[in-house]
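About this split. The held-out portion is used to measure sequence recovery: a designer receives only the structure tokens and must propose an amino acid at every position. Recovery is the fraction of positions where the proposal matches the reference. Here is one held-out target exactly as it appears in the evaluation file.
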């Protein structure tokens, strides 16, 4: 196992990706705030999508104390587009917990007790920020380990075995660099399709490569089709304002700006305003647990709505909306 760690770290020293939340290979002093923020943002999201958000967040709120003191609405607006909005709510809760405690815990158990920090994220912070020999297993690492050991058990059933095997590989020294090296290898060489085995520093050690099945692993259990839901979004506009609402803090798109909508989240509301509504083509959106067909109805209107509020056009930016509602806006306009 030392051979794997040595070969991978030597490769990482030469080929590590330069990312705004990282310190160079072999370096020390990774800021736990930046590590934590990047890991929360990267959940269910790509590095390419996260980079600009991370740089904007750390410009606006360079420390966890600054983020803890931020206005909830501004943070939700800056998060718009990253999706999975419960992460943003937990981000604020965690920042305030950490600021009140005077800093981040320096153990995995302490980190995992924070709001929104699970087993993977606590291990990543502990290894990368504090150099602790914790095993960090994300989707990239699962793929690397499945191929390295030729694990043919389909995911998700294979997860415990993959975590145990990854633990055998994790070195006592440079655990943070090793974790990031595994991530980089999975992201750039050991990719889901057409892995570049000839460029891999572990090529001679890979059981799946030796058996010619690297591209077939990890195997995945067949997914059940997502349930389909339908709903309606109401877009009322006039020369001066746009009708919006702030969604409830909990639930899908919690705390975000949105157009009044009905049905798709399990609720049922009447039309928010009496107007001459025109029906447009629906928009499609896929959530984690269901697919949504959302009708779009638009009207030039004014008056007192039964829900929501009129936002002046001068204060409105489509970028403040979550992805689904930006689709609605694009359809309506």
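Reference sequence for scoring:
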């Amino acid at each position: 196992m030392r051979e794997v760690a040595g070969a991978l770290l030597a490769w990482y020293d030469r080929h590590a990706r330069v990312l705004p939340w990282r310190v160079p290979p072999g370096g020390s002093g990774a800021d736990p705030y930046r590590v934590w923020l990047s890991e929360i943002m990267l959940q269910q999201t790509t590095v390419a999508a996260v980079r600009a958000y991370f740089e904007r967040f750390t410009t606006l709120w360079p420390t966890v104390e600054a983020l803890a003191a931020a206005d909830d609405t501004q943070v939700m607006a800056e998060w718009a587009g990253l999706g999975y909005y419960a992460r943003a709510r937990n981000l604020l809760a965690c920042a305030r917990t950490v600021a009140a405690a005077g800093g981040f815990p320096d153990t995995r158990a302490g980190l995992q007790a924070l709001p929104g920090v699970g087993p993977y994220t606590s291990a990543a912070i502990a290894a990368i920020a504090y150099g602790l020999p914790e095993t960090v297993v994300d989707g990239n690492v699962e793929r690397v380990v499945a191929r390295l050991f030729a694990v043919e058990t389909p995911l998700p059933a294979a997860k415990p075995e993959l975590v145990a095997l990854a633990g055998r590989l994790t070195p006592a020294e440079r655990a943070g660099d090793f974790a990031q090296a595994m991530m980089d290898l999975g992201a750039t060489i050991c990719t889901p399709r057409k892995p570049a085995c000839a460029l891999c520093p572990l090529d001679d050690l890979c059981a799946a490569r030796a058996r010619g099945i690297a591209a077939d692993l990890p195997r995945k259990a067949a997914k059940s089709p997502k349930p389909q839901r339908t709903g309606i979004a109401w877009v009322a506009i006039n020369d001066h304002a746009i009708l919006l609402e702030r969604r409830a803090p909990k639930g899908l798109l919690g705390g975000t700006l949105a157009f009044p909508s009905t049905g798709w989240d399990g609720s049922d509301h009447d039309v928010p305003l009496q107007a001459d509504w025109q029906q447009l083509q629906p928009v499609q959106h896929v959530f984690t647990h269901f697919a949504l067909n959302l009708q779009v109805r638009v009207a030039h209107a004014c008056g007192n709505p039964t829900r929501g509020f009129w936002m002046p056009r001068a204060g409105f930016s489509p970028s403040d909306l979550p992805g689904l509602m930006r689709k609605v806006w694009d359809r309506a306009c």
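Annotator remark: The first strand starts at residue 228 and ends at 237.
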